[in-house]
Amino acid sequence: MEDTSFALYREAIIAALIVIGLAVESFVFINTEIKDYNKSLTKLLKSKELGLSKKQQRSFKRKPERLTSTLSKKERIINSDIKTLENRSESNAIKPLACLSKQIKRNDKVSLITFKSDSYQSEAVFSGESATDVKRLKDLLKTMGLEELKIKDINDKKFEISFTGF
Amino acid sequence: MSNTTDKNLFAKVDKAIFEQIKQIRNSSQFEKVSETMRSFSEKEQLIINQTLSLMTLVLPVIAILVMLVVRYNLGSDLAVRKDLEDKIVSIKENSVKLSSIERAVVPRKVISSKADLVNQINTISLSKKIDSKNIDIDNFSDSSQGGQIKKIEATAQFKKLTSVNFSDFILDLQRNLKATIKSIEVTKDKDNLLVGNISFIMFSKAN
């Protein structure tokens, strides 16, 4: 009987110590941290970027999970928009045309008749008033550093080029 | 050294417990309880003793379990708040990032349909004194990845444009609608005017 009482007494003391430890951790440390978060969240929830109504702002103390789900949705939308805009193609089919136009603008005796370009390849047809003008233009195009430049004569005064890049 | 101190500590605790038990046994209340117990039959005394022992054994365990549940709930509550704060910080940071990309890529006007795009193109034509009949919008399509911004693809078929009209139109398409020219095909017709098509990509906020 005495041994049992002794063992139970010991158990009660150990249990009491564990309960006190858990209570201190829960009601002092965790509760204080929750209060600190509540203060900081009250300010953060007023941010314009979140677009939350006053009712939603007030609801977070009672139902934080509901607000978490609303904000998760918002976060997903923003991330999706960023992804859409960041994955956009930077290539611009107008750049090669602008470059060619700039070069031939200096010479009235040649003109660009047809131009075709996508994000990878460009094709153009030029014509000149004389074979000499055409030759000059070809020489000029060769100095422009166009990638994979191919020149194909159509006739004495007309030729076609293709190139990549930009 | 530390082991000896531990043993001394437990010995002291044990001694204190024994003292307490002795005090309880010598108290008048214990006497009363003992007398009451003696009034019961042996079997009843055994049941009472066993019940009390069980309760003394189980109650502290229940108390610990209750505290563990309380601690778990408070811990979850704290975790939800931490998660909420992380989300808010992430939303604020990404909103700033999104706004800065949007300023460069998304026009202020919302294009929600082909009609809206045609209206915008007509506005550009009008401002550049281009006959709006000379520009047609075709192959309009829009897609969204679940966000508020959608990607719009379309083709502008044009005819009878002067070089100045053409360059003005392209410039405004890029400046006002923030369009990226995906492909272009342009030819001079017999009157030395430009004819062809421009496929472009642009972005717009959804309504």
Task: Characterise the protein shown here.
The complex is a heterodimer of chains A (about 170) and B (about 210). Chain A folds into two domains: about 1-85; about 95-165, 2-Layer Sandwich (Gyrase A, domain 2), CATH 3.30.1360. Chain A is rod-shaped and about 120 Å long. By secondary structure, chain A is α+β, with helices and mostly antiparallel strands. Chain A has helices at about 1-45, 55-60, 65-85, 95-105, 130-140, and strands at about 110-115, 120-130, 145-155, 160-165. Chain B is α+β, with helices and mostly antiparallel strands. Chain B has two domains: about 1-80, no CATH class; about 115-205, Alpha-Beta Plaits (2-Layer Sandwich). In chain B, strands 1-2-4-3 form a four-stranded antiparallel beta sheet. In chain B, a hairpin with a 5-residue loop joins β3 (about 180-190) and β4. The two termini of chain B are about 75 Å apart. The relative contact order of chain B is 0.08. The interface between A and B is large, with 69 and 62 residues. β1 (about 110-115) of chain A pairs antiparallel with β3 (about 180-190) of chain B.
